[in-house]
Amino acid sequence: MNTQDQDVCTSSDFCGTVISHVMMPYHANPAGNVNGGVIMQLIDDAAFVIATRYARSNVVTASIERVDFHRPVHVGDLLTLKGCINMTHRSSMEIGVRVEGEEMRSGEVRHIASAYLTFVALDEAGRPSPIPIYEPSGETARRRYSEAMQRREERQRSLPKKH
User: Which CATH superfamily is domain 3-158 in?
Assistant: First the structure.
């Protein structure tokens, strides 16, 4: 691995991605609204890019927190997904993705959805693999890290107890 890439990805200065897609008729239902499942797949794809680039290994989606759709997306809209690492833990990482829709002719941008995804890095045998520690820098990154740790603790409490 290139050490420059590693340095870039362990700080919050550059630990995300922005991906845009024009929504086409094949993304939509008969009313012209983009299907929620399409948007969910794009959210997962954006988070996958971030997780893979961070871990530099195979990664899998372990969970997706609740996704609420705030506004519809229509055929012809530009859907932009902005994602970043919020925190890491041994082999897992939480990635936040914000989805915005732009009506390109008017320039109006709307918040469509937000989601938090947990990914796990895997080794060649398919077992969880350690990843670099994420060190948030800046007030926003530290806030996201703290909120992500709270969500992780809540998820851990809700897991079935091992006997």
Answer: Hotdog Thioesterase (3.10.129.10)
Tokens 């519809």, residue located: 72
Question: Residue ranges of the domains in the chain?
Answer: 3-158
pLDDT in tens, 104-141: 999 999 999 999 999 999 999 999 999 999 999 889 88
Q: State the residue for tokens 């007030």.
A: 139
The residue ranges of DSSP E strands in the chain, in sequence order, are 16-22, 58-64, 78-89, 92-103, 108-122
For the whole model, what pTM was predicted? 0.86
The order of strands in the sheet holding 108-122 is: 16-22, 78-89, 92-103, 108-122, 58-64
User: pLDDT tens-digit profile of 10-36?
Assistant: 444 556 899 999 999 999 999 999 999
3-class DSSP assignment, residue 91: coil
Record the tokens describing residue 160, joined without a space.
């079935």
